Amino acid sequence: MEIEALLNEYGYAALFFAFCLGIVGLPIPNEVVVMSGGAVSSEGMLLPVPAFLMTYGGICCGLTIGFVVGRFVGVPILERLGRRPKFEAYVARSQRLVEKYGGTALLFTYFIPVVRNVVPYVIGAGGVGYPVFALFAYTGAFVWTALFFIVGYVTGDEINEAILQIP
Questions:
Q1: How many CB atoms lie within 10 A of CB 161?
Q2: Per-residue pLDDT for 1 more than 50?
Q3: What is the mean pLDDT of residues 9-38?
Q4: Interhelix angle 2-10/12-22, nearest 10 degrees
Q5: Which pLDDT does position 7 carry in this prediction?
Q6: How many structural domains comprise the chain?
Q7: What's the rounded Cα separation, in Å, for the pair 52 and 141?
Q8: Could you give the CA distance from residue 111 to residue 55 in angstroms, rounded to a whole number?
């Protein structure tokens, strides 16, 4: 398992940087990485609390980078992404959700793949203040991270056994 090898070699730093860079476009399956962090913690490779905190910290860092970039150069980035057929629908959906729910969209959009990566840019470009962004983004990220980390922690043995049985 590639993710487990990265976690074994780089430990807590792998969790932090995977998410710090993941929110700004690194193609990493976020749910799988968080669950892997929980799984390797359940096996004793990493301590659960530091692993969770590094994961959550990386996510918060990535969200903040997205917000800051959105604040200073958001409109050109969103226009550029919106011209790509693959991302056009995600940008439009993110903008609709932010128009409808404002900063509170950050509470639930982290559960929507790809949209979670676009919403911080939209929020930043839309002029939402940092305190509102931080309250909703970091709260939503905490709930999302805790959910997937716990799932990985609880099912870690079963996931690893299933992987070992694949020919």
A1: 9
A2: no
A3: 75
A4: 120
A5: 67
A6: 1
A7: 12
A8: 16
What's the pLDDT score for residue 167?
52
Q: What angle do CA 22, 86, 74 make, to 5 degrees?
A: 60
- Closest by CA to 48, choosing from 60, 35, 38, is 38
Tokens 């992987």 sit at which residue? 163
pTM attached to this predicted model? 0.82
Which residue range forms the structural domain that includes residue 153?
A: 2-164
Distance, CA of 154 to CA of 166 (rounded, Å): 21
Would you mind telling me the total number of residues written for the chain in this entry?
167
Which residues have a Cβ under 8 Å from the Cβ of 48 and sit 6 or more positions away? 38, 41, 42, 153
143 is written with which tokens? 């709930």
Q: Report d(CA 148, CA 130) in Å as an integer.
A: 26
Q: Which residue has the tokens 């609709």?
A: 96
